[in-house]
Specification:
- With 197 residues, this protein is mostly helical.
- It has two domains: 133 residues; 50 residues, no CATH class.
- Strands 1-2 form a two-stranded antiparallel sheet.
- The protein is rod-shaped and about 130 Å long.
């Protein structure tokens, strides 16, 4: 007569264990998908970072080329100015003023090149920071979404209706959780082995 009661209980426990195991597998699969998504985010961030590095180099090379052209133009301008001043015979303050205006034009052009480079570099740096922060936020969001995978011991105990907390309370002997700490560490180890957090 006892077997008539035991069979439905055993079947219910087996069904609960199967449900627990399939739910556990779903959580593990979801966690793996989130991790793969995070890996993809990091790859995308690295590609974007490489593109921004190339953009920085292009900007630097462009500024160097423009500075070289500016320097060559300054040398031509000063040579032409000195030749013109030598032919006209201008001396004194007039000659100094013309030289200062020419040098001032050169300095303004050089400063303009530096300002343009700093503006371009600031934009590239802002893109880099934004890229890293967006990737970090996405990965942290994925970590927060990850579910907890139950360890083997929890999968066995939960269908019995005990639950880990109840089992932990049963281990309280005289106010000291002698076996409970071992149980908690064993459960945590099982959960990590199963792919949980």
């Amino acid at each position: 007569m006892c077997w008539m009661v035991a069979i439905p209980i055993a079947m219910a426990a087996a069904q609960g264990a199967m449900n627990n195991m399939s739910a556990n597998q779903q959580v593990a699969a979801q966690n793996e998908a989130l991790r793969q998504q995070s890996v993809g985010m990091v790859k995308t961030m690295n590609y974007e970072e490489a593109n921004l590095n190339l953009e920085t180099r292009d900007t630097q090379e462009g500024v160097r080329t423009e500075q070289t052209q500016n320097n060559m133009q300054q040398i031509r301008n000063m040579g032409t100015l000195k030749a013109a001043l030598g032919e006209t015979g201008l001396e004194g303050n007039s000659m100094k003023r013309i030289q200062q205006v020419t040098e001032g034009d050169y300095a303004r052009q050089a400063q303009g090149l530096n300002d343009n480079y700093e503006r371009d570099y600031s934009a590239i740096f802002a893109k880099r920071v934004g890229n890293m922060e967006n990737t970090r936020a996405g990965i942290e969001a994925n970590i927060a979404k990850e579910g907890r995978v139950k360890g083997v011991l929890e999968q066995i105990i939960d269908p019995l209706g005990l639950g880990m907390d109840k089992l932990y309370k049963f281990t309280d002997i005289g106010g000291k959780k002698i076996y409970g700490d071992k149980l908690k560490s064993k459960t945590a180890a099982d959960s990590k082995k199963a792919g949980g957090n």
